[in-house]
Amino acid sequence: MSEEFDDDEMLAAEYAIGLLPADEMEAARRRALSDPVFSARIAEWQAVLSEIADFESVTPPVRAKTAIMHQLFPETARVSVWRRLGLWQALAGGAVAATFVLGFILWQPGPTDQAGPLYTAEIMSQAGDFRVVAVVDKIRNEVILTRTAGAAPEGRILQLWAHGPDEPAQSVGLWPDGESIRLRLPPEIAMVQGTLTLGVSEEPIGGSVTGSPSGRVFGTVDIPNVSDSI
After folding, report:
1. What is the average pLDDT across 30-38?
2. DSSP bridge partners of 166
3. What stretch(es) of the chain map to CATH 2.60.40.10?
4. pTM of the model
5. By C-alpha distance, which of 191, 192, 196, 216 is closest to 204?
């Protein structure tokens, strides 16, 4: 990760870690809903940061943030934090980078300052031959799917499934063709609070006739802490 990233990569990273001001977070959130490539970049950064998040979190004293920020960023003009610090290089540094990034996460405003509930995850087969980036928008109760690898076999169709904790899988909709699709969440799925599970299977044209996945399930993913709260 020693190479410099382009502006979109920086923006996706800052969105994933929550470093953007509220108006820029909202603009990036809206772009992710309509730009599959950008939403995939966000998902990749969230995957990287989720591994870092396994470290035990420690709440730093307020004076520590003030002192460090004053020394690092004395200028008033806002420049990308990732450009200033070269975090694409620091991320390769293991625990030190993890601690530094976690510090920024702990210092960010709470959920009430975010643009809205937007959850990104990746559905991937164990064989690695099928990958989908999923963006769940709880403001509109929609899910946007983008295939980054694989497809349904000839004469078959993709079908998205979802369920809450200890609930049976329910069809969200069919994915007939194209790399991306936007689906409305059924009321029962839209009401899920907590862990939301998504999965993709391949089914006969017209979808499963059993009400449950009947073909190969490419993969599932659990999205924790799903909520309607902003």
Report:
1. 88
2. none
3. 118-226
4. 0.55
5. 216
